[in-house]
Automatic annotation (TrEMBL):
<feature type="domain" description="Tetrapyrrole methylase">
    <location>
        <begin position="338"/>
        <end position="516"/>
    </location>
</feature>
<keyword id="KW-0378">Hydrolase</keyword>
<feature type="domain" description="CobE/GbiG C-terminal">
    <location>
        <begin position="202"/>
        <end position="331"/>
    </location>
</feature>
<dbReference type="InterPro" id="IPR051810">
    <property type="entry name" value="Precorrin_MeTrfase"/>
</dbReference>
<dbReference type="InterPro" id="IPR014777">
    <property type="entry name" value="4pyrrole_Mease_sub1"/>
</dbReference>
<dbReference type="InterPro" id="IPR036518">
    <property type="entry name" value="CobE/GbiG_C_sf"/>
</dbReference>
<keyword id="KW-0949">S-adenosyl-L-methionine</keyword>
<keyword id="KW-0808">Transferase</keyword>
<dbReference type="Pfam" id="PF00590">
    <property type="entry name" value="TP_methylase"/>
</dbReference>
<dbReference type="InterPro" id="IPR014776">
    <property type="entry name" value="4pyrrole_Mease_sub2"/>
</dbReference>
<dbReference type="Pfam" id="PF11760">
    <property type="entry name" value="CbiG_N"/>
</dbReference>
<dbReference type="Pfam" id="PF01890">
    <property type="entry name" value="CbiG_C"/>
</dbReference>
<dbReference type="InterPro" id="IPR002750">
    <property type="entry name" value="CobE/GbiG_C"/>
</dbReference>
<dbReference type="InterPro" id="IPR000878">
    <property type="entry name" value="4pyrrol_Mease"/>
</dbReference>
<dbReference type="GO" id="GO:0008168">
    <property type="term" value="F:methyltransferase activity"/>
</dbReference>
<dbReference type="GO" id="GO:0009236">
    <property type="term" value="P:cobalamin biosynthetic process"/>
</dbReference>
<dbReference type="GO" id="GO:0016787">
    <property type="term" value="F:hydrolase activity"/>
</dbReference>
Amino acid sequence: MIGLFAVTAKGRRSAGELAAHLGADAAVVEGAVKPALRRIWPRLGAAVFFLSTGATVRLIAPLLTDRHGDPVVVCVDEESGYAVALTGGPAANALADRVGEFLGCQPVVTTAAESVGATVLDELVELLDATVDGDFADCAAAMLAGEPVRVINPLRFPLPAMPSNVTVHEEPPPVGPQWTVVVDDRLLAVEGRVLRLVPRTLVIGVGSSTGVRASAVTGLLADLAEHAELDLRAVRAFATVDAKSAEQGLIDAVDDHGFWQDSAPDLLHYPADTLAGVDVPTPSEDVRAEVGTPSVAEAAALHAAGELADGSPVELVAAKLKGDKATVAAARVRPRGRLVIVDAGPGAEDLRAPRAEVELRRAAVVVGLEADLERVRHLLRQGTEVRVSAPGDERQRAAEAVRLAAAGRSVALVGSGALVGPALEQADERIEIAGVPGVSAVSAAAAELGAPLGADHAVISLADAGAPWPVVEQRVRAVAEADVVVCLRDNADWRLGAALDLLRLHRPPRTPVGVAGPGIGTSVAMITGFDPGVVPPGATVVVGSSRTRAVGGRMVTPP
């Protein structure tokens, strides 16, 4: 919910116009501001005050508890000259921009660290589990100052939205005076002011003879890094065959590597017959004769990387390199694009899952229908690309989101959980897909209507695009005969009437029928004489079973 508060006639007029512009979630709060604010504060996702900043601060200060959970707050002065973002970080900045654009006033962004990039840099380090090399504070200060900063991302990690002064490249652009942030597991040659973020993507496979010295392994690692231009700070784990896991020289070399890492990587080991099943470019029959597998270094690197990849693609980036009683090879866990299907809930701000807001702020691209995007636009970080889809086939909407994610981007597809299936059907290993559940329209309607779903129930969509009428008719007839509560969604007029006619054949005349939906309110009537023409668009119709009763204007179905 977006609450708008005003005390003067002029402020109330502006608040009313703005509420209409912001959509169904926005409402002008009537009555004395202080008690009204205290009453609805827990339900607010955002608030706009047509008051002085001093008065607004005094009102909200006692109510603030957690910067991640507190509502977004924007303050508009009496003359509508400025829209000041007070709390809420990037979401407040975005809302101030929207308010300013509509009212023709100047947005004032006061949360500089969050709005222009410092938190993006921190977030990158956390998301990538990256080692930082360079003057992090100075680079962050440049972002805060609005200086041009370029990010080089050759492996196409799914980055969050970037502020307008940051550009993203896959290859190094021409040398310039600006800061360059390199996100890579290789030692790319980049001139100028450089901040390196080294993600842990590499697994080193190691084979050895009995009695190998630690110095032989560490020296060979240095040769491998130079030969393949790898940054050994990107090593996530070492791997070998079971028979060599107790070699002291190998153990010491891994421990030595840990001295200049934040923590020592694991030394993983696998049975010879497991490694023998890994396809490698340079197998050796001599190695097979000694340890039971034609490859140790390459096979161990690839197999361990596959175990750690969690579905991400794996590639051998450095073939076997031989040294004094040792061999090494390197595999990479490649990053995947990220697609999150965000169910924004049935409409009310306070019914949206907190995780949905986290994922929306993380996404670099947000895809959805205009109506769905308008409900969450104020939550988006500055720099987020918004793709508005035309109403129609959910598969087409999912296809656009999948295409963007396959290109290595971080994408949020806003809609319902029904989009997860079409997205999964069209995705491949290049994409990580996650879903953020929301309160369904049916659950929200049931809560408003009382307790109609206390026993078995069914949900049927009556949409023309969902299924041909003979199929829908068969489903309605089945639940009618089964005597369970049925929730009817996507109600086309004639289909709703036809469905109710089928249900009347199997329901007592006084069976309650409830109607509820976002911004609609509730109504309960008897199935006999119920008029489907009074059902507003977007409403859910709940038809009780033979045991459902109407109690005090609500519906109750005993368990």
